[in-house]
Amino acid sequence: MNEIPVTERTKVRRLAERGRYERQEVYDIIDEALVSHVSVVEEGRPLVLPTLHVRRGDLLYIHGSPANALLRAARDRSDVCVAITILDGLVLARSGFHHSVNYRSAVVFGRADEVNDLEEKQAALDAIVDHVAPGRLPFLRPMTEKDIKGTLVLSVPLEEASAKVRTGMPKDEPEDYDLPIWAGVLPVGVQRYQPLSDPKNLPGVTVPQHVLDWRNKQTN
Amino acid sequence: MNEIPVTERTKVRRLAERGRYERQEVYDIIDEALVSHVSVVEEGRPLVLPTLHVRRGDLLYIHGSPANALLRAARDRSDVCVAITILDGLVLARSGFHHSVNYRSAVVFGRADEVNDLEEKQAALDAIVDHVAPGRLPFLRPMTEKDIKGTLVLSVPLEEASAKVRTGMPKDEPEDYDLPIWAGVLPVGVQRYQPLSDPKNLPGVTVPQHVLDWRNKQTN
To answer: Which of residues 16-75 of A touch B (CB under 8 A)?
Structure first.
């Protein structure tokens, strides 16, 4: 067991039984999700935008253009909150009130540091590519110093984080179980379709195995 | 054409050609997505959490338990930012640098008002159920006043909002198009699996048609 210490902000109060503080369980959610939502305070008001992320060890990396207003605000003002959410199913209860969703959701609080060390920055960028497109890195044109300098990378330590998870069937009012209403769960996940080849690919270049392999994955 | 007036906050500056201000285009993203991420400023620091939403006319509704800390902060402090993101594909370029995702993303800024009028509140809650589970409402145990009072509903006017959209193939460096690297797009969407029936359903109650119908939808 390796729990992330619970703080005032990470303690799940509402439906406390859904709270998760085990480090590996939080990390598994972060690692599975492709998209995260990063929020900052900008001139006293909230701002939240989606981004791609990756975890390396106990650091969460997010990246974008050096012109990205959110990342610049995060770098300058430091305090960020990152939400990472995976939808697992629709919970179809006998009343509207008890309709819900099954989900795994992680939230991270921390201060964002700009990654300036070229080696760490390249490793983080490679990891982001490998997170979005597993196994693809060895087939790409290698990263140049211009590429690395053309990207803003921030790291957030995974020191203040927790997760919230809902699984299973609807929880209806006791008397509603006597109603002849079908209830259950509709599981949902990420669907991968057939890859579309760039018309500008050189003749004879076909869809590589690493891309075909993703279609066979049935995880989120 | 019905554009949402562009403000300092909603103007897409980075990759401005991806900006969308047409009201219907922003609304279509909000209507298609199930999950939204709501952020508030809490004691000077950012907080963002996922929630379910629905749009009715020019209002965005979000809801949760009256004990939900985020919603309470939103109600008390008013300023919220809501991000609604749909992932459409992985953009697989010839370099790591140009890897990206195709997406449709809406962002809404505004002040959250608590909905206290019972009729509007019930209509909003019904609309949220219908958004998550289209066509299911007529088959449910009707909503009670206790249900309505047991939920906190906030509305945010859709007056300051915009969207950002990426579509299409990778945009690689000119010289990289000469490399024999496969590039393209892997389209992704929401996968709906077989419904799981609640073991507590009454005998003879089978999966209704409205639930079976969702499986045939291939949209996000």
So the answer is: 34-35, 37-41, 44-50, 52, 64-65, 67-69
